[in-house]
Amino acid sequence: MKNQPFKFGYQYDPTGKLSSEQVAQFNRRIEWFCQDLKELHEESGYTVFELIEWLLEEAINDFVFETSSESIPPAEIADSIKKLAVSDLSNLYHMAPPFADVLGEIYRYLVATGCRKNWGIISMSPMVARQVAIDHLDLHQLLKFAKQKRQWNICSDLRGCSTGAVLLATAAEIYRFDPKLLKYVGFKAIDTNYQCCRMTLLNFLWHDQIYHQLDHVEVFHGNGLGADKEWLSSLEWSLRE
Questions:
Q1: CB environment 16-46: b (16+ within 10 A), e (fewer)
Q2: Domain segments of the chain: what residues?
Q3: Cα(2)–Cα(189) distance, rounded to whole angstroms?
Q4: Torsion-angle region of 190 (φ positive above 0: left; ψ -120 to 50: alpha; else: beta)
Protein backbone atom coordinates (compact mmCIF):
# COMPACT_ATOMS: atom_id res chain seq x y z
CA MET A 1 0.00 0.00 0.00
CA LYS A 2 1.44 3.34 -1.07
CA ASN A 3 1.88 6.12 1.47
CA GLN A 4 -0.78 8.78 1.17
CA PRO A 5 0.57 12.22 0.23
CA PHE A 6 0.69 14.69 3.09
CA LYS A 7 -2.20 17.13 3.06
CA PHE A 8 -1.79 20.39 4.90
CA GLY A 9 -3.91 23.48 5.07
CA TYR A 10 -7.64 24.11 5.13
CA GLN A 11 -9.90 22.23 2.73
CA TYR A 12 -12.62 24.85 3.26
CA ASP A 13 -13.53 27.72 5.58
CA PRO A 14 -15.83 26.37 8.33
CA THR A 15 -17.19 29.86 8.99
CA GLY A 16 -18.27 30.31 5.37
CA LYS A 17 -16.53 33.67 5.10
CA LEU A 18 -14.07 32.66 2.37
CA SER A 19 -14.65 30.94 -0.96
CA SER A 20 -12.86 27.70 -1.86
CA GLU A 21 -10.51 29.67 -4.13
CA GLN A 22 -9.62 32.08 -1.34
CA VAL A 23 -8.86 29.14 0.95
CA ALA A 24 -6.67 27.62 -1.76
CA GLN A 25 -4.80 30.93 -2.08
CA PHE A 26 -4.22 30.95 1.67
CA ASN A 27 -2.76 27.44 1.52
CA ARG A 28 -0.44 28.45 -1.31
CA ARG A 29 0.74 31.45 0.71
CA ILE A 30 1.56 29.12 3.63
CA GLU A 31 3.67 27.05 1.25
CA TRP A 32 5.47 30.12 -0.12
CA PHE A 33 6.13 31.41 3.40
CA CYS A 34 7.72 28.09 4.37
CA GLN A 35 9.80 28.04 1.20
CA ASP A 36 11.11 31.52 2.02
CA LEU A 37 11.99 30.32 5.51
CA LYS A 38 13.83 27.28 4.16
CA GLU A 39 15.70 29.43 1.64
CA LEU A 40 16.83 31.71 4.46
CA HIS A 41 18.03 28.61 6.30
CA GLU A 42 20.08 27.50 3.29
CA GLU A 43 21.54 30.96 2.68
CA SER A 44 22.38 31.77 6.31
CA GLY A 45 23.34 28.37 7.68
CA TYR A 46 21.09 28.79 10.73
CA THR A 47 18.64 25.99 11.47
CA VAL A 48 14.95 26.40 10.71
CA PHE A 49 14.34 25.94 14.44
CA GLU A 50 16.58 28.93 15.25
CA LEU A 51 14.91 31.02 12.56
CA ILE A 52 11.45 30.25 13.90
CA GLU A 53 12.49 31.16 17.45
CA TRP A 54 13.73 34.55 16.24
CA LEU A 55 10.64 34.97 14.05
CA LEU A 56 8.26 34.35 16.97
CA GLU A 57 10.24 36.68 19.22
CA GLU A 58 10.13 39.45 16.62
CA ALA A 59 6.40 38.97 16.05
CA ILE A 60 5.61 39.16 19.78
CA ASN A 61 7.81 42.23 20.20
CA ASP A 62 5.86 43.85 17.37
CA PHE A 63 2.78 43.62 19.62
CA VAL A 64 4.77 45.41 22.36
CA PHE A 65 4.85 42.43 24.68
CA GLU A 66 7.73 41.86 27.06
CA THR A 67 8.97 38.28 26.83
CA SER A 68 11.36 36.34 28.97
CA SER A 69 13.61 35.47 26.05
CA GLU A 70 16.53 37.66 25.08
CA SER A 71 17.00 35.94 21.73
CA ILE A 72 18.09 38.44 19.09
CA PRO A 73 18.70 37.39 15.46
CA PRO A 74 22.17 38.05 13.98
CA ALA A 75 22.46 41.39 12.22
CA GLU A 76 22.91 39.85 8.78
CA ILE A 77 19.44 38.24 8.84
CA ALA A 78 17.60 40.68 11.13
CA ASP A 79 15.81 42.42 8.25
CA SER A 80 14.73 39.11 6.69
CA ILE A 81 13.39 37.87 10.02
CA LYS A 82 11.50 41.12 10.59
CA LYS A 83 9.90 40.91 7.14
CA LEU A 84 8.78 37.32 7.72
CA ALA A 85 7.58 38.00 11.28
CA VAL A 86 5.69 41.21 10.63
CA SER A 87 4.83 41.85 6.97
CA ASP A 88 4.56 38.29 5.63
CA LEU A 89 2.76 36.90 8.70
CA SER A 90 0.35 39.81 8.64
CA ASN A 91 -0.53 39.02 5.02
CA LEU A 92 -1.11 35.37 5.93
CA TYR A 93 -3.51 36.18 8.75
CA HIS A 94 -5.45 38.65 6.63
CA MET A 95 -5.90 35.93 3.97
CA ALA A 96 -6.72 33.17 6.45
CA PRO A 97 -10.15 31.81 7.38
CA PRO A 98 -11.34 33.39 10.66
CA PHE A 99 -9.38 31.95 13.59
CA ALA A 100 -7.32 29.62 11.42
CA ASP A 101 -4.32 27.95 13.08
CA VAL A 102 -1.83 29.74 10.83
CA LEU A 103 1.31 28.94 12.84
CA GLY A 104 0.21 25.34 13.25
CA GLU A 105 -0.08 24.96 9.48
CA ILE A 106 3.39 26.48 9.02
CA TYR A 107 4.78 24.01 11.54
CA ARG A 108 3.00 21.02 9.96
CA TYR A 109 4.24 21.92 6.49
CA LEU A 110 7.85 22.35 7.64
CA VAL A 111 7.88 19.02 9.49
CA ALA A 112 6.23 17.19 6.58
CA THR A 113 8.80 18.55 4.12
CA GLY A 114 11.83 17.32 6.04
CA CYS A 115 12.58 19.93 8.67
CA ARG A 116 13.34 19.08 12.27
CA LYS A 117 10.82 16.56 13.63
CA ASN A 118 11.56 16.66 17.36
CA TRP A 119 10.39 20.16 18.24
CA GLY A 120 8.18 18.80 21.02
CA ILE A 121 5.07 20.36 19.51
CA ILE A 122 2.02 18.26 18.63
CA SER A 123 0.23 19.79 15.70
CA MET A 124 -3.38 19.00 14.83
CA SER A 125 -4.99 19.19 11.42
CA PRO A 126 -7.85 21.72 10.99
CA MET A 127 -10.39 18.95 10.36
CA VAL A 128 -9.52 17.09 13.57
CA ALA A 129 -9.36 20.30 15.62
CA ARG A 130 -12.81 21.32 14.38
CA GLN A 131 -14.30 17.94 15.24
CA VAL A 132 -12.90 18.09 18.76
CA ALA A 133 -14.19 21.65 19.13
CA ILE A 134 -17.70 20.69 17.96
CA ASP A 135 -17.78 17.69 20.30
CA HIS A 136 -16.99 19.87 23.33
CA LEU A 137 -18.77 23.13 22.46
CA ASP A 138 -22.04 23.77 24.28
CA LEU A 139 -23.68 26.71 22.49
CA HIS A 140 -26.78 26.43 24.68
CA GLN A 141 -24.67 26.98 27.78
CA LEU A 142 -22.77 29.82 26.12
CA LEU A 143 -26.04 31.57 25.20
CA LYS A 144 -27.18 31.26 28.81
CA PHE A 145 -23.96 32.89 30.04
CA ALA A 146 -24.21 35.63 27.41
CA LYS A 147 -27.76 36.54 28.48
CA GLN A 148 -26.48 36.88 32.04
CA LYS A 149 -23.47 38.83 30.76
CA ARG A 150 -21.15 36.31 32.39
CA GLN A 151 -17.85 35.02 31.04
CA TRP A 152 -17.75 31.41 29.91
CA ASN A 153 -14.23 29.97 30.06
CA ILE A 154 -12.87 27.47 27.57
CA CYS A 155 -9.62 25.76 28.54
CA SER A 156 -7.13 23.83 26.47
CA ASP A 157 -6.30 20.22 27.30
CA LEU A 158 -4.20 20.31 30.49
CA ARG A 159 -1.62 18.12 28.76
CA GLY A 160 -0.81 21.05 26.49
CA CYS A 161 -2.29 23.59 24.08
CA SER A 162 0.04 22.86 21.13
CA THR A 163 -0.46 25.80 18.75
CA GLY A 164 -3.94 26.51 20.11
CA ALA A 165 -5.64 24.55 17.30
CA VAL A 166 -8.67 23.34 19.28
CA LEU A 167 -9.24 26.69 21.00
CA LEU A 168 -9.03 28.46 17.64
CA ALA A 169 -11.42 25.96 16.05
CA THR A 170 -13.82 26.60 18.95
CA ALA A 171 -13.54 30.35 18.36
CA ALA A 172 -14.28 29.76 14.67
CA GLU A 173 -17.42 27.76 15.48
CA ILE A 174 -18.67 30.47 17.85
CA TYR A 175 -17.85 33.13 15.21
CA ARG A 176 -19.84 31.16 12.63
CA PHE A 177 -22.84 30.93 14.99
CA ASP A 178 -22.73 34.53 16.27
CA PRO A 179 -19.54 36.68 16.39
CA LYS A 180 -20.99 38.81 19.21
CA LEU A 181 -20.84 35.81 21.56
CA LEU A 182 -17.03 35.80 21.51
CA LYS A 183 -16.87 38.72 23.93
CA TYR A 184 -18.44 36.47 26.59
CA VAL A 185 -15.81 33.75 26.15
CA GLY A 186 -12.51 33.47 27.99
CA PHE A 187 -9.90 31.33 26.26
CA LYS A 188 -7.25 29.80 28.52
CA ALA A 189 -4.27 27.79 27.30
CA ILE A 190 -1.39 26.08 29.08
CA ASP A 191 1.71 24.18 27.98
CA THR A 192 5.08 23.23 29.39
CA ASN A 193 6.60 23.98 25.98
CA TYR A 194 7.54 27.66 25.72
CA GLN A 195 7.34 27.53 21.92
CA CYS A 196 3.74 26.28 22.06
CA CYS A 197 2.79 29.12 24.39
CA ARG A 198 4.19 31.72 22.03
CA MET A 199 2.55 30.19 18.97
CA THR A 200 -0.84 30.00 20.68
CA LEU A 201 -0.53 33.58 21.90
CA LEU A 202 0.44 34.90 18.46
CA ASN A 203 -2.38 33.05 16.73
CA PHE A 204 -4.91 34.77 18.99
CA LEU A 205 -3.17 38.16 18.87
CA TRP A 206 -3.25 38.31 15.09
CA HIS A 207 -6.89 37.22 14.83
CA ASP A 208 -7.93 39.71 17.51
CA GLN A 209 -6.20 42.48 15.59
CA ILE A 210 -8.29 41.60 12.53
CA TYR A 211 -11.71 40.77 14.03
CA HIS A 212 -11.66 42.68 17.35
CA GLN A 213 -14.03 40.10 18.85
CA LEU A 214 -11.89 38.55 21.59
CA ASP A 215 -12.18 39.89 25.09
CA HIS A 216 -10.13 37.59 27.27
CA VAL A 217 -7.28 35.24 26.32
CA GLU A 218 -4.66 33.93 28.72
CA VAL A 219 -1.65 31.74 27.98
CA PHE A 220 0.16 29.98 30.81
CA HIS A 221 3.64 28.52 30.61
CA GLY A 222 3.62 25.66 33.08
CA ASN A 223 2.46 22.15 33.95
CA GLY A 224 -1.31 21.84 33.77
CA LEU A 225 -1.21 18.43 35.44
CA GLY A 226 0.89 19.63 38.36
CA ALA A 227 -0.05 21.22 41.65
CA ASP A 228 -1.84 24.59 41.58
CA LYS A 229 1.28 26.48 42.61
CA GLU A 230 3.16 24.85 39.75
CA TRP A 231 1.21 26.63 37.07
CA LEU A 232 -1.18 29.25 38.44
CA SER A 233 1.83 31.44 39.29
CA SER A 234 3.30 31.05 35.81
CA LEU A 235 0.99 33.39 33.88
CA GLU A 236 2.94 34.66 30.89
CA TRP A 237 0.57 36.79 28.84
CA SER A 238 -2.96 38.11 28.81
CA LEU A 239 -4.67 39.66 25.82
CA ARG A 240 -6.53 42.09 28.05
CA GLU A 241 -5.15 43.84 31.11
A1: eebeeeebeebbebbeebbeebbebbeebeb
A2: 20-112, 126-238
A3: 38
A4: beta
Q: Point out which residues pair with 238 in neighbouring strands.
A: 218
In the Cβ-directed half-sphere of 186, how many Cα atoms lie within 13 Å?
11
pTM: 0.87
In 10 A of CB 195, how many CB atoms? 18
151, 182 contact by CB (below 8 A): no
By CB neighbour count within 10 A (0-12 exposed, 13-18 middle, 19+ buried), where does 6 fall? exposed
Contact of 104 with 123, CB cutoff 8 Å: yes
Q: What angle in degrees, to the nearest 10, is found between the helix axes of 126-136 and 165-177?
A: 60
Q: What is the pLDDT of residues 4-61, one digit of tens each?
A: 445 667 888 988 999 999 999 999 999 999 999 999 999 999 988 889 889 988 888 8
